[in-house]
């Protein structure tokens, strides 16, 4: 039986994707360098420890496990760090992708799902961000994702490999406590850390042109994101065409609305404190999700309260 390779499969999103594929009866193998991943997350799935920059390791894995398709999630992903260390991000994210695609081409892998990001869009001045909006990323991280899409698309055109890029919006929550996000970088975990430390959650600016003055984002449950990968995999398995798709709910939630939900779920209604805006934060970014619904048959299932509740259930108390 042929397998799917999930790069970064011991990480937060990757482990959820592994679970989604296994739940559908797929054979899976993982490559992860474990810099942020945990081997416990992969369970009984074969885990190859190493970097996708190691072409020999990747080729051996593809051959030994009869890999027919790849879900590529492994990447460095902190926007601020990418600004401070651009060369590191270009080498890791683009160098790793090129090495992976070279090996995939040599080993006749014909299906490739690329983990992209809504950061490829930058700050689009539109109500809903469609896949046709021009990419204007605002960080080296976003640039690596956009250029990664270009590289994958070019390889697809040259070799016939079918490629799907999934542009995640704001991923949150977890399917189970053992798969929780260990990072404290996004709004929900930042708010949970503040409240459990006896501190007030922060709002970075309340003077945006939105109904309550705070930024609006599209939040999507990580289990839904994982199911989007499974939908992309099924599409490719059935001979479907290449394409790029937004992965979101098509619903916007303001910072104040998210913090109100956190307060309701945790029972801690400490009043947030407003601080200065962060540079580069757009007022509103909400996904158009018509394309993925119509072409891949995928729709998000979880709402904001369920995202927050699952994150809170896994939070160390």
Protein described:
The structure is a single chain. By secondary structure, the protein is an alpha/beta fold. It has two domains: 3-171 and 219-247, Rossmann fold (3-Layer(aba) Sandwich); 173-218 and 250-314, UDP-galactose 4-epimerase, domain 1 (Alpha-Beta Complex), CATH 3.90.25. It contains ten helices and 14 strands. It has helices at 12-23, 55-64, 79-84, 86-106, 140-159, 187-196, 222-237, 255-266, 290-296, 304-314; strands spanning 3-7, 28-32, 47-49, 67-72, 111-117, 162-168, 170-172, 202-204, 216-217, 219-221, 243-247, 253-254, 273-275, 284-285. α1 links the parallel β1 (3-7) and β2. α8 packs across α10 (304-314). The longest helix has 21 residues, at 86-106. It starts with a strand and ends with a helix. The model has no long low-confidence stretch (mean pLDDT 96).
Q: Tell me the CATH superfamily of the largest domain.
A: NAD(P)-binding Rossmann-like Domain
Number of domains in the coordinates? 2
Order of helices and strands: EHEEHEHHEHEEHEEEHEEHEEHH
- The name CATH uses for the topology of the largest domain is Rossmann fold
Would you state the CATH class of the largest domain?
A: Alpha Beta
Mean pLDDT: 96
In the CATH hierarchy, the architecture of the largest domain is 3-Layer(aba) Sandwich
Quickly count the helices: 10
- Biggest β-sheet description: 7 strands, parallel
Q: From the alpha carbons, calculate the radius of gyration and give it in angstroms.
A: 19 Å
Report the oligomer: single chain
- What share of residues are in beta strands? 15-25%
Distance between the termini: 43 Å
Extended strand count: 14
**Poorly predicted residue ranges:** none
Protein structure class: alpha/beta
Helix content class: 25-40%
State the strand order across the main sheet: 3-2-1-4-5-6-11
Overall geometric form:
globular
């Amino acid at each position: 039986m042929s397998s799917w390779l999930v790069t970064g499969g011991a990480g937060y999103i990757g482990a959820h994707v592994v679970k989604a594929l296994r739940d559908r009866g797929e054979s899976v193998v993982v490559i992860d360098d474990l810099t942020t991943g945990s081997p416990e997350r992969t369970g009984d799935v074969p885990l190859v420890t190493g970097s996708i920059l190691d072409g020999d390791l990747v080729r051996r894995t593809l051959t030994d496990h009869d890999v027919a398709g790849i879900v590529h999630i492994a990447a460095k992903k902190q926007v601020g760090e990418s600004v401070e260390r651009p060369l590191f991000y270009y080498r890791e994210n683009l160098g790793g992708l090129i090495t992976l695609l070279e090996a995939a081409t040599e080993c006749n892998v014909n299906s490739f799902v690329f983990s992209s990001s809504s950061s490829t869009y930058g700050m689009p001045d539109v109500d809903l961000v469609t896949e046709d909006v021009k990419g204007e990323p605002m960080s080296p991280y976003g640039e690596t994702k956009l250029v990664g899409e270009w590289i994958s698309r070019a390889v697809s055109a040259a070799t016939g490999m079918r490629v799907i890029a999934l542009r995640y919006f704001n991923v949150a929550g977890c399917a189970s406590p053992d798969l929780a996000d260990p990072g404290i970088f996004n709004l929900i975990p930042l708010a949970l850390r503040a409240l459990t430390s006896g501190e007030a959650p922060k709002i970075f600016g309340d003077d945006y042109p939105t109904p309550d003055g705070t930024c609006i984002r599209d939040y999507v449950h990580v289990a839904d994101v994982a199911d989007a990968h499974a939908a992309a995999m099924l599409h490719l398995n059935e001979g479907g065409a290449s394409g790029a798709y937004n992965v979101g709910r098509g619903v916007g939630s303001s910072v104040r609305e998210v913090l109100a939900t956190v307060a309701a779920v945790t029972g801690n209604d400490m009043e947030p404190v407003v601080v200065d805006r962060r540079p580069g934060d757009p007022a509103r970014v909400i996904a158009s999700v018509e394309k993925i619904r119509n072409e891949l048959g995928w729709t998000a299932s979880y709402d904001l309260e369920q995202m927050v509740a699952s994150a809170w259930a896994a939070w160390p108390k």
